[in-house]
């Protein structure tokens, strides 16, 4: 794609897919129509120039293409109904697309519906809401394009067969559904922040997409404090990205990072967003995690960060939160207590950071034989090359 068409695709794809999905009631049909519209744009725009209103052009072209496709369909049961509904979509290629109801939030809630498997939610969100193409998503998650395409097909079939409504949930359901959306965005960011496999620790494109989508959620849900809490957390964590990997490509732990490499603009933005979240006076887990990240950014004392983790554990006693709190307690000076907390954690079988954290605390207590065993356990559970090299260096350091 040309640069202008690529930018239009990323910006207008979710808007157009949302509009057509609302009308057609079928995400697959809507996606096909919008995909055809962009294929037409790829052919015409380099020759005729970019339209005055690219978004309206895409919507109008997708609408007309969907009408043509339905008219050719001989057996489609709802043909007449859908043709009538498509007549209500603006056909003016120069229309003000902002006058059309924004369906991106409904699209996001649909893609993140709990009836879908988590991996399907992530793939569908990146495809339909972020506008990533199938090869990009497959590459990011280290799966083949056919496998990713099948994942998307199954997800859309599941949406259709279960009759999941295309809508923003009603107010009484929102408190239960918002966490599903935020969790998907956090999972996308975490895969970019610490890739599960491959030669690179970071995948900056995924971090950027998660932040962009989190900003979209904040725009569309301006009274949801946890959305702002998540955005603040992502900005504050992403601010450290240049310091997390050394010049040799190796992992650098937080305590060893060169703070001069931290992105001051991202930190300032994250702190502003966190204050916005806190002003809504409905604290939640993402806001507390963001407060912890803010503490690191502002140089808070280790015991303050450990205390914030204790507060987080009160509202989110998940195994990962308990692990992070244990590490914070150890960093605040009580290594024995941190190790005892780690030994009491259940439910993290197969999670490489648990034995890695245990190994580090055992190393600090000069219990090297036990540390070596835990480093080996962690190595068996990670496929990320920089993390493996880091663990191997630590293993050699304890004589393993």
Descriptive key words:
mainly alpha, two-stranded parallel ribbon, 400 residues
Describe the structure.
The protein is mostly helical and 400 residues long. It is built from 19 helices and two strands. A two-stranded parallel sheet has the order 1-2. The longest helix is centred in the first third of the chain and has 22 residues. It is elongated. The chain starts with a helix and ends with a helix. The model has no long low-confidence stretch (mean pLDDT 89).
In short:
The chain is mostly helical and 400 residues long. The protein is built from 19 helices and 2 strands. Helix content is 68%, strand content 1%.
